[in-house]
Write a structure and sequence with these properties.
single chain, alpha+beta, DUF4258, 27% helix, DUF4258 domain-containing protein, 5 strands
């Protein structure tokens, strides 16, 4: 299993945003959907609905290599639920 490695600022921002590490790991390893980052082709935006937090959508920016998942940032994305629902109409 690939390890999850965090960018230097990521753990502070994740704690500041009161995100649980289990949510971030779930989003990285088992996302509900993935989008390419529009500004960096090496980065994926991974999304997961977090039932334990009023079904809000967590977005984690990840750079995956053969050896690891490199987490750049994580936050609740207010518009993600609407974008995801629109894709399925």
């Amino acid at each position: 299993m690939k390890p999850i490695v965090f960018a230097p600022q990521a753990p502070f921002k994740i704690a500041q945003r009161r995100l649980w590490s289990t949510w971030v790991e779930r989003c990285v390893r088992q996302p509900d959907w993935i989008e390419n980052d529009p500004t960096d082709p090496t980065v994926e935006r991974r999304f997961a609905v977090i039932p334990e937090h009023d079904a809000r959508v967590l977005r984690v920016a990840v750079r995956e290599t053969e050896r690891e998942f490199f987490v750049i940032s994580a936050f609740f994305d207010r518009g993600a639920r609407k974008r995801h629902a629109a894709k399925h109409l």
